[in-house]
Structures are given as C-alpha cells and as structure tokens.
Amino acid sequence: MLAQRGSACFLFRDPTDGEGDKPLDVHSLKRVWYKLLAKLEQRCTDRGETLDDGTPLHFVNPGSDMAIPFPLHALRVSLISYFILDLKLPIAVVSKMIAGHATIIMTLYYTKFGKTYMREVLREAEKHELEAEQANHRRFLQDATFEQVSQRFAYVSDDAVRTAIQNRTAAAFVFDDKGICPNGATLCDVGGERIGAESHSHFAPVPGFPQERNCTCCRFFLTGPAFLPGLIAHFNTVSEKTHRQSERYSALQDKLTDLEDLLRAAERENQPFLRVRELDQLNKYTEAEALILNKYLNDLQATNHLIQRSIQIAKDRTTDGVKLVAKGSMADLKVGFIESQSVLHQLEVVCENAVIYPDIDAGFATIRRAQMLDAMLRYNGMDPVLMYLDQEAKLLVGNAVMQLIQVRTGSIKGALPYAECRLKLKEIGLLKGQVLNEIAQVKAQILLDHAKTKRALTPPQEDHDDAS
Q: What are phi and psi of 117, to 5 degrees?
C-alpha cells in the first residue's frame, strides 16, 4: 500500500533540515502547541466559559512547565468525532473528503465517544423503540378481532379483550413498561374480582387501590412478549417486597405463638393470664401483616401467569404480531427462578431495574444497599461515601460501584462476596483509587445532568434597555 502511494507530501515541513522536505518533529511543535492552548484557555476564562457544573476549562496543566494533557493529534480525533457523532455526517464522507483515510476502519478508530454519550444514545434509542412499539400495538388494537387480541396478548380475564375491542380510540390505550391499559388508566376501582352473583355483577377494586395501580392483577390489563423485560422487573421488585414482608410476618407470628403458649400454660394451671391485651393487639397486627403478605403473593402469582403466557405466545409460530428475537430459536426463550440466600442479591436487582423502569419503587432497596456498600468501603480501608448522598445519587453511585465489581467477577453472584465484606477488593485487582475515581465520575455526571435539566427548564431572559 505504501509503494502504491508514491512520495509523501507533508503539510508542515522543517526548513532547517537542509533539504526542506522533511516533516516537523514532535519537539518542534510542542512549544507552539502549548502557547496556543494556553491562549485558548485564557480566552475561555475571560469570556466566563465553564463546564455545565461551573468548573473552569483547562487545556494545559497549571504550574507545570510545558505539560499538555491533550496532544496535537487530539485535534484530528476530536474533529472527526464531532463530524460523525454530533453533526451526523455520513462516515464515508468524513473518511474520504475530510480525514483522507484509505479505509473506513481507520476513521472508525478515530471516532471516540465516552460513557456519557453512549448512555444518552442508548437511552434515546430505547425511547424511540418503545414509541414505535406502542404505535404498532395501538394500530393493531384499533382493527383487531376478539380472536386476534386473545392470541397476541396475555391477560388475567377475558374482560381485557372485550374492553380492548370496544375502545377503538387511540387515546383509550395507555402504555407502560409492563403492558397496556385499554381504559385510559381509569377503572382501577372496578378492576378486581367479581362480587355477588353473575346476574348482578359488581367488581371489587384492584388489590392495593387507591394506594397503587396494581396493573398485573387488573382484569382489564393486556400484556405480551414485547413487555417481558418490564414484567420480569416488576416480578423481581414484588419478590423483594414479599421476602421483606415475610420476615416481618414470621417475626410477629413467633411472638404470637410464644404468647399463646403462655396462655395455654396459664389455663392448665388455673392461673390468671395478665397479657390478654398484648395478645389481642398482636393478633390484630399479625392479621394485618398477613393480608399484606397475601396481597404480595397474589401479585407474584398473577405476574408469573402473565410472564408464562407471554413466553407461550412468543414460542407459538402460528401467532401473528410482534415476536421477541433471541439468539437461537424461540424454544430457547425461558424464564427461571433463582433461589438466593443473599439479601443484597435481591436489592441489587431492584436497584438496577429502577434506572430502566421509573415506576419501580426502589426506596428501601436503595437505602439498604447503600448501607451495605458503605460497610464494604470501610472494610477495604475507605471512608463511607453513600451515606452523605441523596436518594437519587445513592442509587446511581451504588449501581456504578456494583457494576465495577461485576466487571471483575463476571456476574452479580460473583460480586456478592466482595460487596458483603467476605472478600477484599484487592483480590480482584480493584484498588482504592479506582473505586473512588468511579464514584467521583458518577457524582460529577449527576451534577452535570442536574445543571442541564435546570438550564432546559429555565426560560431565556431577554435584555431590555431602559428608555430615558
């Protein structure tokens, strides 16, 4: 390839080399490049230009002789990245007309993007995917028959199909991560089980109403294979609440059993039992907690039914409509239960899902996991950090720390011994500086996101000259 190109022509040549056709070396340009960057930094300071969080712009290292964090070649990398990533120019045009690369592969190498850009692009892609998916389902439901809807969607009652057929207007269908409400997110007060005889039908509210919209138990709710990730995330969230509620109920039941044993012992000995009031109160508390636990168990059962039905629809090759695409065949699509003895395992799954699905209540999981991660930091010779953050920052920083450990161990299960203070982080090559740097980067990104949001919500101020 070099032989075919012939002699090279350099844009900048060194006139002192005797021949005048040799390129400038790096040392010749270093002083000029340093002065240019220092001048640019001073101009930005004079104009008051900063990062979104108010941090001053630095292009040279202050107090260091000729120290430059950006090499001259960074101009080429940043310009090519700007054209492709920000201006959305076709990569073939940039490669041939601007970069002058022999191959597009080299232009791809020059195109650099950071984690923030990648998160924004993927978040935007997920948003567009959901909007397109909702539009497809909405068009289908406006013209579908009872049989078509029943084949394509999962539900807990035929009332869901009948309501979808009757409501032909697009405004009636409200979408979320778990599925579709064909009633415009209303009628939760009659979305529960039938009350009384069928000839005089009355329906109870959805379990949990009005405190929550329990869609997976609603007789009007529709879902399907396209909503499987949201259904699974919801199942995991309810599973964590069920486990927590089960522990609370078991503790009260143990206390109640002890008091009942004392009551029977007193009756056998014909002795007065002086803790009757305490026993009555404990009975009421236990019954109330049992109702909450029963509600969570019913939620799990209903959600699992919808998940299994969605998988069945996805595997049915005769069903028309949207299919999930998996590596392999549809027969490989399965959902399984993992029995874990670790509380942190459940908390971690809920916290990771909370970033993707905003309707997930991860308040308790976020706080409890933050306490455990602070204990891990202290166990590894670092000061606790998460205890000083607000709930949003606790969630994001905690996710970043756990993902950092998972990268080294390969899975959540592999990360648990380190997060639960059973093993030291240095055993997987994680040093103190790496962990603290990751935390600092996430905290800085949170500040930038808040600044961008505030800037977007603040209306522009118009300058008005006072007339004298």
A: -60, -40
What amino acid occupies position 195?
Answer: I
One-letter amino acid identity for 234? H
Q: How much is the mean pLDDT over the chain? A: 82
- R_g of the chain, CA atoms, integer Å: 31
pLDDT tens string 48-67: 887 766 778 888 887 666 77
Tell me the DSSP string of 287-334. Answer: HHHHHHHHHHHHHHHHHHHHHHHHHHHHH-TT--S-----SS-GGG--
Closest C-alpha among 442, 435, 426 to residue 373: 435
Residue 44 CB-density burial (10 A; 0-12 exposed, 13-18 middle, 19+ buried): middle
pLDDT at 198 over 80: no
Q: Which amino acid is at 385?
A: V
Contact 173, 140 (CB under 8 A): no
Helical H runs in 201-275?
228-268
What's the average model confidence in pLDDT over 282-302?
94
Contacts 24+ apart (CB under 8 A), 363-372: 363/391, 364/244, 365/240, 366/391, 366/394, 366/395, 366/398, 367/391, 367/394, 368/343, 369/344, 369/394, 369/398, 370/394, 370/398, 372/344, 372/347, 372/419, 372/420
Cα angle for residues 299, 300, 302 (degrees, 5° grid):
65
- From residue 452, give the alpha-carbon distance in Å to each of 195, 400, 466: 52, 21, 31
Residue 216 near residue 306, CB atoms below 8 Å? yes
Q: What number of residues does the chain have?
A: 468
Neighbours of 443 (CB within 10 A): 16
Report the C-alpha gap between 360 and 231 in whole angstroms.
11
pTM for this entry: 0.67
**SS3 label, residue 225:** helix
Cα separations in angstroms, 213 against 62, 193, 208, 218: 56, 15, 7, 9
Reported as a single tens digit per residue, the pLDDT across 389-435 is: 999 999 999 999 999 999 888 888 899 999 999 999 999 888 888 89
Nearest to 175 by CA among 206, 207, 129: 129
180-201 burial, b at 16+ Cβ within 10 Å, e below that, comes to bbbbeeebbebbbeeeeeeeee
Measured distance CA(276)–CA(204) in Å, rounded: 35
Q: How far apart are CA 205 and CA 303, in angstroms?
A: 18
Q: Which amino acid is at 38?
A: A
Q: Is there a contact between 107 and 93 (Cβ–Cβ < 8 Å)?
A: no
In angstroms, the Cα distances linking 115 to 51, 274, 438 are 17, 65, 12
